[in-house]
Amino acid sequence: MSNALQQRAVELGDVPPARSRHAGKRSAVTLPGALVVTGTATGDVVAYDRTTLDERWRERRDTEMTSVVAAEPFGDGVVIGERSAEGTLRCYDQKTGELRWQYATARDLGAPQKSSRFFLPFVAALETAGDRLYVASRRYERDGDHRSFTSAVYAFDETGDVVWTHETDASPISLDVEERRLAVAYNRCPGTHQHGVVVLDAATGTVRYEWDPGTDGQRRVGDVSLVSDGVIVASHGDYCGYRLHDGGAEQWCVDLGTPAAIGDETVYAYPNHVHATADAAVFVTGNTYSRDGRETASLHPREHTAFGYTPDGECVWTASAGGFASELGVGGNHVAVPGAQHFRTRDAAVHGLRIFSTETGLEATFETDGIVTAVALDGESFVAVEEPVVYHDEGEKRGTYRLVSGASRREARAHRDHL
Question: Which residues lie within the region annotated Disordered (predicted)?
């Protein structure tokens, strides 16, 4: 990858390095106006000047087992979501950092079953539209081989009051809002709720329609993206991508990480992310898994790949996404994909960030020593969180915990053309 574009960085403190396998999100970043707001693995929220990265305000947290996993501008404030014993939402004034309101989702989901990271209530997604904030939060339990979830999707007003709540026993993973529709993706459905996609009325929370890939098992949907006439879906159930008409009828289905025979094994890769515009849709796949178990020496030919599709379902470009991506940064017709561990090969060369045009593919790449785990993107610049990593079979610490700010896409395109 090229690393020629100018970048700025600021250290975020000391955290235990990530390991070979992914342990879930523990950082977040967003771009409200002239600021960069970062949520950290220790629960702190820090606002920096967007141009200089000088610190503007900070709230420190002394609570153990708290990390900030989601962040989103909301009016003239900024909202963060925690993975913590309370699964708290906090809304801050952008200029001053004053705490305006907070809400503990654990009051609805219940207390964690264990004092362990994966059992903590988790704010999985935030989206905003006008004067509404939409939130998905979940809590996980396990009893032997039995897994269960308690979850809620909320609409909040600007004062922090709950407008409506939609509760299920499935695991929400992402949200998207457009006009009067709110789409919810559920990646695991072990209970009575058996629909991977639910489209709600954004104003009232009532169900407009539901859709599911119709596959066996708990895995259902990895991500959703709304378009004016329907929904684009990354399906965990059958490893495909779908375009649905508004109402749930299927317009097309494309193979993404579907099972492939490699030697005497059959392997697959989950489509984890999708972002769609009126003119294109980008899907991103994740890690390779074997049908015979989690361990495999094989690699799926379409793992860690970004795909660009037309509204008619034609694939017009593909490109490597590097390693595992925990999220996408989106800005109009551009997508930023953070590259974290490739735990099968543990290749540090994949660490970094890739920026794609939804219509034409790769535009720029940015190397990091550590793994990139959170990203935000708009018309001017990108910001990303780099975390240190130590692979179990190597023992070398790579990278530091820091915020990285990079060039505008115009500069990125100029750099690409120069190459």
Answer: 1-26
By CB atoms closer than 10 A (0-12, 13-18, 19+), residue 89 is buried
* CATH numeric code, 8-418: 2.130.10.10
Taking only the tens place, the pLDDT of each residue in 275-296 is 999 999 999 999 999 998 778 8
Q: 194: which 2 tokens?
A: 């058996």
Question: Hunting for tokens 């030697």 — which residue is that?
Answer: 263
Taking alpha carbons only, the member of 340, 339, 352, 346 closest to residue 391 is 346
Strand order in the sheet with 8-11: 8-11, 402-406, 382-387, 371-377
Q: Which residues of 362-393 are buried (b: 16+ CB within 10 A; e: fewer)?
A: bbbbbbbebbbbbbbbbeebbbbbbbbbbbee
**Which residues, in sequence order, are CB contacts of 52 under 8 Å at separation 6+?**
none
Strands 352-357 and 361-367, how do they pair?
antiparallel
Residue whose entry in the numeric block shows the structure tokens 């599911």 = 212
Burial 232-255 (b: 16+ CB within 10 A, else e): bbbbbbbbbbbbbeeebeeeebbe
Q: How high is the mean pLDDT of the chain?
A: 93
What is the residue extent of each domain of the chain?
Answer: 8-418
- Confidence at residue 5, expressed as pLDDT on a 0 to 100 scale: 45
Considering the entire predicted model, what is its pTM? 0.95
User: First-to-last CA distance in the chain?
Assistant: 11
Burial grade of 75 (CB within 10 A; 0-12, 13-18, 19 or more): middle
In degrees and rounded to multiples of 5, residue 310 shows phi and psi of -80, 165
Block residue for tokens 């378009």 = 227
Cross-strand pairs, 100: none
